Here is the input.
Amino acid sequence: MTTITKPIETNKLPAGGTNPNQFDVLEAWYPIHYIDDLNKSKLTRFTILNKDVVIWWDKQASSWRVFEDKCPHRLVPLSEGRIAEDGLLECPYHGWAFAGDGECKRIPQQPEGRKAETSQRACAKSLPTSVKQGLLFVFPGKPENSENIEVPIIEAIEETPDEWVVLNTFRDLPYDALTLLENVIDSSHIPFTHHATVGNRDSVSPVELELVESGKNGFTGIWQDGPRKGTLGKQDTSFIAPGLVCHDLTSKKFGRTLTVVYATPIRKGECRLFARFPFKFSAKLPAFFIKLTPRWYSHISNNRILEDDQIFLHYQERFLEESGGSDNFNKAFYLPTKADTYVSELRNWVNKYNANPFPGETLPPRLSTEELLDRYHSHTKHCGSCSKALARIQKLRMAIALLTAVTWAMIPLTSLLQTKSVILPLSFSAIFLLFAGAWLGLGRLEKRMYQGDEVPPRNLPKK
Here is the structure.
């Protein structure tokens, strides 16, 4: 059985607190951003477990900081402020300024000689952070426990980083982190839900899952036959509480492939997905082509795959809530096969260890289909690669529109000047068609940065 995290060291604390009968969701590390998508000159908002935070670069300590997004003075969001010239985080309201540890360093309104900034009440609340494997993690629990709790990383990559090629994506999803984990841990849905993207209905076969071990900090299992009718070999699965799932598949034909998903709870009915796909290919050519593909272009395909089940999962968790919620899942769901072993174990884990991140809260109203398929606000504007690509596409499209208009105007002019020959008018007509085609193609690409398709690929007619 392969695992993705190492055993807890004797001097370390387990995630979730020390109570053996409860998993405290605050006492754990959560990823909140890829480092590649953060801008050191700007403040970035995020919400984790109903708590608004601001991410910023502390140039004095050369590290990323996360503060609760409230100024202690008058409680306005610090994310509306700026990073001042001296590297302090400055509140937008009255200019109070804070160092990376939250200590107030400047209150412009106080007379000389006063030291109101030395009061503990003047401090901003700073949350512990850690950067691992390109991800910024935050610890929302007791700060003194953070150093003794392991950050959940992919140990296989840590051991041999040069042997792996890793594709990364993220998206803010319109359903709970638990709904996301339940979906990811269920491999049996892939041939149907993701038919024509990463699955195929013809590859469906019985799914006989077996639990290997289970406890407060998660569980492991094995699918001995594995996907695609057993042609790829066995698949090991790990759930690392509270929000990490990994499928580990090794085949002689393709090499070793991991599917790693972090589910970070934002608020009830919303989470941020971080999906990582590490490959250790048996041949060099696939890795070469993956490295050639621009990150933003991969994200377009990733978003399409996520949208395969985005709409019905948004509805499903509301139906479950109407049926009594996770506490009543055994009656609400009918789970007669071993394909649902992991789903049952996940829901049992939540109930056994009181691990619901939003106990007693109800889901917000349903979103429209258009809102569910939004890509811009859920991904593009937060993604460094996609936001830059979108800006370049829009500029290029504007330039091509101008060239297209000029070329169109030249066609009748060349006809007047070249009365005995049609070569020049035809040449400008061909150039016009080329520019017009490029303008339309870039328009379709631009649209894919903003919105997904209402009809999923599995439901499109066969060509």
Q: What stands out?
A: Residues 56 and 145 are 22 Å apart (CA to CA).
